[in-house]
Write a structure and sequence with these properties.
65 residues, mainly alpha, 0% strand, elongated
Length: 65
């Protein structure tokens, strides 16, 4: 199997992370009227995933692959 470029790897992983963000959003909504702490924690995880996705984009672009 051929080695994937940084751009290919980032693209595949960002798609996975995007799906995780959507799931976390759904999970957070489930906790809306039950527990605000858990709702906030799930939203924080979703935001952190966004930061990771941005970093992946920057690294893959700088790798020039």
């Amino acid at each position: 199997m051929a080695t994937r470029t940084a751009r290919q790897m980032a693209g595949a992983q960002k798609r996975t992370l995007k799906a995780m963000q959507a799931k976390l959003l759904d999970m957070s909504a489930d906790w809306d009227e039950v527990d605000q702490f858990l709702m906030g924690e799930l939203n924080d995880l979703r935001e952190k995933i966004g930061q990771i996705m941005k970093a992946m984009s920057e690294v893959s672009e700088s790798a020039g692959s």
